[in-house]
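Example (one chain per record):
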Amino acid sequence: METITITLPSRLAARARSLAEMQQQKLPEFLLVELQHVLKRKEPERMARASRRSTNNWRIMSDQEVMNLANLRMDKWQALQMHRLIHQAGARQLTSEEQKILDTLLEIHNELGSKKAKAIAEAIRRGLLPPANDPYWIPPPRRKLTPKKKK
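Predicted structure:
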């Protein structure tokens, strides 16, 4: 887990405290759950909008936009969190909250992979990237993500 400090307006903080008390939760736990719900609801909307903008309009996209999509990656913190949870799932049973987070991260990973594949195909079609069967083309080395070990 990562610790983040945020400043809330007094009214919002008081409202969050009272809702957390009503649900008999500590304020940080309450805010974590609520933030996860909000982000989970918003993510499909953002992904759908971005997908419609990016993948349905190949003809109007510039070469640079196609290459940006072809080089698309998960945010580093999301990738690290996903790999950490996958590693933990092999060692022990994940909690329901961890499983929900992992499922969401895997959905994001799959969606980005799909977009990236379509963009690479478009980049090859436009001649921006060489085809995979080109004998002179060498794929770039893959980075291996490993979880950080505690000292």
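Caption: Residues 10-126 form one domain.
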